[in-house]
Amino acid sequence: MQTQSPQASITISAGPRDPQWIDRLKEEYSALINYIKNNKSEDNDWVKLEPANKECTNWKGKCWVVHNLIRYEFDFQFEIPPTYPLAPIEIEIPSLDGLTPKMYRGGKICIDIHFAPLWQKNAPKFGIVHALQLALAPWLAAEIPVLIEEGKIKKD
Fold first, then answer.
1. Which UniProt keywords apply (predicted)?
2. pTM of this structure
């Protein structure tokens, strides 16, 4: 799904309530643009993302996985937590809610064991792009093929 790690370093430690939030967002956008651009140039495009509100505290997007040459696409969303960047982003895929034990109520993907400790070690350098690459992408790669094989996800 993804091959390159995010190259941009997030340097501003600011959350949605901080005066420097706009400066943090500029770094977040730069990292996202570079990540998506790199993925597209390597024919490894798997995600689209945009803010869902003007404050850029709610985000929505689409992600996809190709399994057995069939593309499966999912809407996802997340809210920037008030204590961001110290608290990790919790990504939700509402259409998959209840299909796997590696998901919490509301379709939040499980990040406790692998991603949350990594985030804690790297906060505030980690940002949205890191949540996509180091939480969402591996979760999709591990869970979606299993859900397909179990018949819980079917192609329309």
1. Ubl conjugation pathway
2. 0.91
